[in-house]
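Many introductory courses stop at the sequence. We go one step further.
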Amino acid sequence: MPINNKVLLPVLHVLAWFILFSLPYFLLTLDATQDQVLLKTFIRSWVHLFFYGIIFYINYLYLIDKLLFSNKLLQFIGINVIIIGVSILLREHLKAFYFDQWLDLNSEETRKMPRKEMSIYFNIIATIVPIAFAVALKTTERWVKIEKATKEAATLKLQTEIQHLRYQLQPHFFFNSLNNIYSLVDVAPEQAKSTLHSLSKLMRYLLYETNTSVIALSKEIDFLKKYIDLMELRTSDKTKISYSFPVEETQIQIAPLLFISLIENAFKHGVSATQESEIKISLTTQDNLVIFKIENTNFPKTTTDKSGSGIGLQNLKKGLALLYADKYTFETQLKDGIYSVDLRIET
């Protein structure tokens, strides 16, 4: 179960200060009485740490966000100079009026203490440390938030672009299918009705099954089979169509509608009403690798034929780049009148 940052951060702060306040006990020599140890610890460590904590949180909770990150550097420095000065004056006041009378001013340890000027200098340096630490911590937190926001924005952009491509594909697919049905209305009206019913099933899949990032490969295969059967209705005996898909159920999940454009393309450019033509489609899997191959005879469309506009293939390439980045290969080849595609996706 993930830890809530709202709980984790305060716990870490409390733990850090607890360690800092406890640390003097582990650094003290053990040749003094317990009373002397406690007194020296309080005078030399706890008071300083108390002021350091106040300075740290004034910067951490307010000054850094309000001034430093708002490009008010001079005000940030000025206020901190005042805070450092007040802090040192208060500590010197406490030392002079409350603690010096508890110390043995003639003791050897007291005589070894640095002069007042050096003590103030060391205090200034030491007081800058919690400010620097607060700036470093706050900057790191800000960077993490920006990095997280950037990733979320990139993810949202990716999802939007993918959804846009799907919205482009659906009308494109529907338009091509209606063209096929239109061509059957006069010559085979009953077949046109059956085809229209099949198209409604395919559109139901497009509308209700593909609004997810991934889908079971078996569902996508079932969709491809129905689409091939639909397209096969308008082909003549001169066209030979064969396909091979995995028989056994697989656990592979894949982005929907990746292969349909390739099959559409094969039927657009691989079928002739007057010449022998052939389309071969195969999909195989190897562990988490999906291999899709398609071959078809090539009958290039004329420039006036808008059915060969290539919108589907353009969207496929964009979708692959967005969804699988460097986890796919896409190769095409035209040789001896045969156009072939080899698409491999690592899921």
